[in-house]
Amino acid sequence: MNTALVCGLIIAVVLLVLLLIGTPISTAIGISSILAILPVLDTNAAFLTGAQRTFSGISVFTLIAIPFFILAGNIMNRGGIATRLINFAKVITGTIPGALAHTNVLANMLFGAISGSGVASASAMGTIIGPIEEKEGYDKDYSAAVNIASAPTGLLIPPSNVLITFSLVSGGTSVAALFMAGYIPGILWGFACMVVAFIIASKRGYKTTERIKGSKAVKTLLDAIPSLLLIVIVIGGIIKGIFTATEGSVVAVVYSLILSLFFYKTIKFSELYEIFRASAETTGIIVFLIGVSSIMAWVMAFTGIPSAISAGLLGISNNPVVILLIINIVLLFVGTFMDITPAILIFTPIFMPVCAELGMSSVQFGIMLVLNLCIGTITPPVGNILFVGVRVAKTRIEEVIKPLLLYYAVIIGVLLLVTFIPAISTFLPNLMGY
Prior knowledge:
The structure is a single chain. The chain is mainly alpha-helical. The chain has one domain (3-431). It is 79% helix and 0% strand. The chain is built from 21 helices and no strands. The model has no long low-confidence stretch (mean pLDDT 85).
């Protein structure tokens, strides 16, 4: 047996066993990677290399953007931004059948982009809009399905931590290009959810809400503008080259602090400690995960695992459509039981060379990969957004899955468009000169 096959089998078997017995994903990745390299290196060299790769993997300047965007998201989550964005969305969607459901989708897209968290979006929107929908006669499971299906859009619409993670793992794909590439797929996902919500609402006779008009509409818009400006300032600054993605993350923290402490006055100074502590905990988990995943990436490269997988896939068929469908099926399956960040860290070095061989750009591949894994966040058995959305709606998974099926269908349709129409991902980056 060749080295790549032996090491690949060791990684796959050990990782699977450790995950099944409940080992934390970061620990499982580190142990399986070290064990996989033992047939090639002696014990001391394997552990020494593992330590070196862990530290080199987190000693990357761009990585600093992640904790700052996490901190900015937590500040905005606590700062009453969700309510203002919901009111803003109501101004736009007030006369459409099932208007509250459309408000939910639009608010998820906006709040997810600002907070950088699909879970936070599902929780905030489900908690605020859910009871209003129930009072207006909306079926609880319909409302929960709309909220769950649209919550991941903010993971594609920038600023997005998962796109920054992909940039690091992929060998330096431009963060700005990835940010621009996420807009159209994220908006298409949200629009697809609105189409399904509209069709169901029309059949069930869910009424529109009263449109906010006149001075009240103006006040609502003005109240939401400072929150929306975060996206404009951060993304605009990155795109225009005023600052890097890392510097933009610091700008996001400063702006969100000023907004929440002094403008909206929704956060007290005494609450900052808890916000910083929670952000540090999340950062520690993600950074350690990136560090140990660097070991796995090195082991794969050293032993030739990606090349072997690439050769195997290309040996199955010379039809790019078939190969891309296989990759999508694998990623959809992986996303149902693995969180986005570790899945990006593990599967980017495996599938990126294959897609590059087929002529797919790293930007398009990154969006395809993230979109695949986002679907996993709303899919059993481990979909964290699914579980949060069900919990805040006070319903059961088995009741929500049926209305979710139509959403799965249209979202997978968006995935296929992203996979086979490069311009959906590359048009905006190309337009901006990336």
